[in-house]
Structure formats: structure tokens, C-alpha cells
User: What shape does this take?
Amino acid sequence: MENQAQRFPLLPRTKSPAQGGDISGVGAVELRAFEYCLRWMCVDQSTLWKAVLSWSVFFLLTVAVPLASLFGMRCYSTCDDDHRRPYRAVVQGSLSVFAAISFICLSRWTRKYGLRRFLFLDRISDATDDVRRGYAKQLQSSLMLWSFFILPCFLLETAYKLWWYITGGSTIPHLGNIYASHTIACVMELASWLYRASIYFLVCVLYRLICYLQILRIQDFAQAFSEETEVDPILTEHLKLRRYLRIISHRFRLFVLLSLILVNASLFVSLFMITRTGSHANILKAGDLSLCAISIATGLVICLRSAAKVTHKAQSLTGLAAKWHISAMISSFDECDTETQRNRISSSYPSPPVNEVWGSETTDEGEGDDDLENANIDPIVAHTISFQKRQALVTYLEHNRAGITMFGFTLDRTWLHTICAIELSLLLWLLNKTIGFS
Assistant: This one.
């Protein structure tokens, strides 16, 4: 019964009320592109034969080809110093481990939830038009972003592999005809590298995409402070946002944690091998190691930056609610003042309206990250809510700061800056030792 419930197509072909409507809605074309991408990488396991094909391709390109390259292409006795590839074990191991984690997680998510539910498209039917249009636009740009990271790295890896096989010549191990053997080996190695890197970057981009949907929801939720005349709808929407963030945190927490641990482990092992006595690293011997380090560190930064941005937006709601509360208080006190007092104050110290004061904080610096703080507040709408309700809502938001978490730890900007500083230090140290970049 459980297997039957899990075996369903990635995209439903008919309208399902439980899934939020027809697939022909917002982002249908982009969602089909994601489905084709998963099928192209053989991650689609909606049927038995597709699952067998998916796992077969996974073991071939993630396990068999790297092992064959690691043990079958050793040429310590015949190759010169630049063709010995002393760091290939770290490179193959790192890429295979990250690909395995990404493949297992992605297979489980798509098999358990389906692509539409996994991307929260079943929850977007109750969203506003701005959220739906923004998410459709982000769906389209996500595949472009994925290609933007993959293609340059793949071109560099292709250039490195072609140089290694062409200049190595007969000193590189081969079976039978040297040209056919090296061509097949080069193609299989490149296919293995592309497959492993693509799966890892795809999961990172999907994580960024899901986080962006919550950012759109938070930005739309901020408008409630200038439109709603009751606290109940605001509280209900905030509880819904917290639930979505908890779901995202729970689904991705193991992937983010393992990525964080393994990226640091890979960089430390690479630095240990490069800095040990007798090691003479250069771009020819350690070019693939540098490219591997850049790839896995970039994927981790994508995930952490997306999580930190969602957390920052969600926690900015507390300041917005406080501004909404105090603007209503100032407006109510202004109404209680006598006309004489208002005239005396206005004649001596002209004061702009409350909404003009709050809305005049926009600056060019940091505008993209702090746009919630610059949202206009309507004190007339806020004044229709009692002081006790407004105060209770602000207190609730202060003690229930939403955000992306990882086993209880909030992934905010402090985490992002600390981890990025460590990763950047290790990466620059590694690049300085391999290609002379610092």
C-alpha cells in the first residue's frame, strides 16, 4: 500500500483538488522543464523500470566510472610528473559523495511528494497574483542559474581532460587501440563529472527556488499591515508562514548539514595533501582538485545564502509590526490633541504625517534586503484594531521569530558570515597552493 502511494507521476495530468488545481496554471511550462531535466538525469523514479534505470545510471556514473578512473588510469611508473594526478582520490571521492547524497535526497523527495508538491506549487493556489507571477519567473530563471554554474565548470573540466589525454599519449594506460580507448575513457569521465556535479547543483538550486517562494510570501504578507483591519488574518497568515518554513527546514536539514560537514572535510583533506612534505602542487597536477573545491563550496554557499535571506526577511516582520503598532499609537494621540495644541505645534515645528515619516526611510544601500522595513504603514487602518490586540501581536512576533533552521540552529546572517569566512579562507588557501590565486 505504501509503495503504491509513492509511485505516482512527477506531474499530474489532470486536475486534482488536493493538489491545488490544474497543471496548466502558473509556471506549468517551467515545471515541465524541471521534469524533463530530472528525466534527462535519470532521477525520475515514478515507475519500476524508470527506478531501475535511475539507479543503474547512478551506480555507473557515480561508482563504477570513478573507481575505474581511480585504479585503471594510474600511471606512476610511465607518466611524467604533471600527468600523475596525485589528488584524484580526493576529487573522485568528494564528487561521488556529494552526488550520492543529492541523488538519494532528490529521489526520496520526488518519490514521496512529487515534483509539484515538493516545490510547494500545491500551496500556491491561495497566493496572490504577485506571488504567482514572481514564482513563475523564478522557476524560469532557476534552470538558467543551474546552467550558469554547470557549463563554465564543465568547459574547464573538458579542457583539463583533453589536455591530460592528448599530451599524455601512450604513457597513459589503454586497452587495444590507444585512440579509441582514450576517447571512450575521456567521454565516460566527462559524463561522470557532469552527472555528479549536475545533481548536486540541481538540489542546491531547488533549495534556493523554494526559499524564494517563501520570500515572496513574506513580502506579500507585509502588505497585510496596511490592509487588514483585524489581527486574526495577520496571525493566521504568519502561522502558515511558520509552518512552511518548518517544512522546508525539516526536508533539507540533513542535506544542508551533510554538505556543510563534507565541504569542510574535503577542503581540509585537500589542504593536508597539498601542504604535506614533498608535495609539489601546480595547476597541471591539481587543476581538477581546484575545480572540485570551487564547485562544492559554491553549492554550499547557494544553500546557506538562500536560508539566511529567508530568515532575515521573516525576522524583519517583527520590526515591521512594531512600526505598525507605534504608528497607530501616534495617530491616536494626535487625534486626542486639541486643535489649539496642534496649531501651536504645527506653527513652531511642522511635522509630516506619520505615514510620510515611516515611508521616507528608503535608501539605496541595502534596499533589496530591507524592503520590508521600508513598507508604508496606514495608521488609519491600524487604528481600527485595539491597542491590546496590536500589542499582543507584536509580543507574539517578538517571541516567535520565524526562519530556516537546521536541527534547532537558525540559519541567519551570523551563520552565513561565519561559515563563508571559513570556507573562503580554506578555498583561497587551496587555490593559492594549486594555481597561485589568492
Q: What stands out?
A: Strands lie at 405-406, 409-410.
